[in-house]
């Protein structure tokens, strides 16, 4: 009788341990799967351009967003839905027109380009401002032309110490985690 009672107690204890372990595993699985689902929904909703990393050097998009002088450029990038392209590993060289450069375009041009039906034309213009690479202003003096992200070439000219890309003068340069931003005084319009 004592042996039977001990077997029942042992079996009962093993059963209790098994049930407790199952409950803990289910709770971990539910928590993990819930977190995974939330992360996937967030990633689908936003894309890598919207992930924030306080420790890394700002990328070219972060630099444009952080510059009051480039709010029109940022609005154009958002309208063309090119944010994710500007946070890629790169390296990317972005020729970033200032708000004043956009203001110098014929009246109504920017407003017209920001319309949804002109998204492709706007994207073409913006891609004409991006080159693969990370070249300083001085290094750019060695080039006659650059191949742009819209598959067209842009001319490079040197006038004294100044460098002009597509007729736009580089007025400042800011290194980025994934390239370099060259601030330019003019919107560079592609030939096509």
TrEMBL record:
SUPFAM superfamilies: FAS1 domain. Residues 57-188 form the FAS1 domain. Keywords: Signal. InterPro entries: Adhesion/Biosynth-related, FAS1_dom_sf, FAS1_domain. Residues 1-27 form the signal peptide. GO terms for cellular component: extracellular space. PANTHER family: FI19380P1, PERIOSTIN-RELATED. This is Uncaracterized surface protein containing fasciclin (FAS1) repeats. It comes from Flagellimonas pacifica.
């Amino acid at each position: 009788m004592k042996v039977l009672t001990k077997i029942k107690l042992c079996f009962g204890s093993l059963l209790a341990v098994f049930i407790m372990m199952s409950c803990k595993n289910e709770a971990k699985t539910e928590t993990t799967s819930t977190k995974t689902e939330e992360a996937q929904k967030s990633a689908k909703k936003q894309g890598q351009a919207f992930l924030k990393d306080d420790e890394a050097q700002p990328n070219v998009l972060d630099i444009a967003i952080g510059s009051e002088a480039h709010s029109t450029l940022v609005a154009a990038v958002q309208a063309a839905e090119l944010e994710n392209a500007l946070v890629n590993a790169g390296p990317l060289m972005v020729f970033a027109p200032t708000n004043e450069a956009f203001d110098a375009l014929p009246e109504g041009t920017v407003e017209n380009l920001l319309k949804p039906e002109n998204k492709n034309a706007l994207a073409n213009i913006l891609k004409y401002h991006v080159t693969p690479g990370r070249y300083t202003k001085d290094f750019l003096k060695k080039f006659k032309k650059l191949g742009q992200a819209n598959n067209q070439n842009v001319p490079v000219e040197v006038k004294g110490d100044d460098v002009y890309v597509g007729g736009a003068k580089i007025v400042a340069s800011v290194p980025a985690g994934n390239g370099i931003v060259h601030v330019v005084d003019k919107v560079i319009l592609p030939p096509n």
